[in-house]
Design a protein that fits this description.
Strand order of the largest sheet: 10-13-14-9-8-15-16
Number of strands: 19
Distance between the termini: 88 Å
Radius of gyration: 28 Å
Low-confidence stretches: none
Amino acid sequence: MSREQQAVQRARSSFQTGRTKPLEFRIQQLKKLLLFVTERRSNIADAVKKDLAKSENGTELFEVMGLEGEILLALENLSQWAAPRPVEKNLLTVADEVYIQPEPLGVVLIIGAWNYPWAVTLQPLVGAIAAGNAAVMKPSEVSCHSARAMEELLPQYLDQDLYPVVTGGVPETQELLKQRFDHIFYTGNNTVGRLVMGAAAHHLTPVTLEMGGKSPCYIDRNSDLPVACRRITWGKFTNCGQTCIAPDYILCEPSIQGRVVEEISRSIREFYTDDPKTCEDYGRIVNQRHFKRVMALMEGSTVAVGGQSDESQCYIAPTVLTGVTGASKVMREEIFGPLLPVVTVSGVDEAVHFINQREKPLVVYVFSSDSQLIRQMVADTSSGALLANDCLVHFTVSALPFGGVGHSGMGCYHGRHTFERLSHLRSCLVKQLGMEGLNGVRYPPHTDRKLSWARLLLLKQVDVGRLQRLLAVAVLGGLAAFVWRRFLRRR
């Protein structure tokens, strides 16, 4: 029996004992996960520094704070999320107990990504624990230092049988995918996403696929260009461009292309100095294979800003490309690196057409002071999310479902959405054995008279909550009338 198979079997056996069902146990594990994040900040930062050359403060901002927020949100709201949810009834079931009961799915496989190795692996884990599942975590082997740290440190805090960490490369991942899970949560690229989905289909296992794509960024000529380009520069070059929701390319009219390039160049210098290679807040490409892939994408385009590189350090400077068309090499795949192509269009209509000719992206970005233009983008395009006049920040809003559509992914998470995604929403109806006479309309023989009664009983919806509110108002009204007649009127 392989190591991967043993880990899955231990997790399933532990889950089947029912240990994860009590909310007290889930809360205990979430508190231990929060303690892990709190006590192991320096270990996390050291690992990410070795993997991606990210600064300690950058790791705190982009890896740790969001994870803390997710845990605190779950701790605060878990009792509400997991509670039975009454639903509207019809007249036939008005006296019955009818509700939705969230229940755990079972054993979840979480396959993390290398670009944010802690956030995209442990944030889904928060929802898995909150929903009462066991979870097997497979961090990306590309961020090898983070994977080793997670394997070594996390079991010191969480239940080792219910929440094992399995490390390794492609063979280990393939072995995990042979096992039966109750849900697979994958973050990564489309190529591997197809393999994950194919393996899941063998066991009829549902999947959440958090992928990416080429997220466009349209800049209206009447927008505040210095502010727009500053925010785009931040969104694009954070983590050296290795962010699934980074703006992949810019769409703008030819009349403002020069100013856009100039403003982005100015923001690069502001954020990363005149020599980004020496700037602590500017990271590196994760490895040489990805370095070569990104460098090759510049072929056929004009370097307007940046372009410097150092393969020995996997360094590529923040780079802006012009002379780019839809057929350019840099437009054929998700860049996932610090290259920002500028494609010129005649206006918003051509921009919408350009976006809609391609696969649905993870995000559509639009910068404009014209609310009507923004509404047009919302109405005429489709994407996992749409963000107007900023970049990335929708990821910080736990109330918003985060996920893609079509080739950019399926399913969503964050906050309550993760809990819902990793729960089975079980329909429950509890009827008493009395009042059998009311059920006569459904039993044979089926007469016209019974059909008329059935139409009334089945099609008339009853809002029990509204009835309860009306009853409460009536009771209060009656009480007020009694007090008035009994005590106040005599005065």
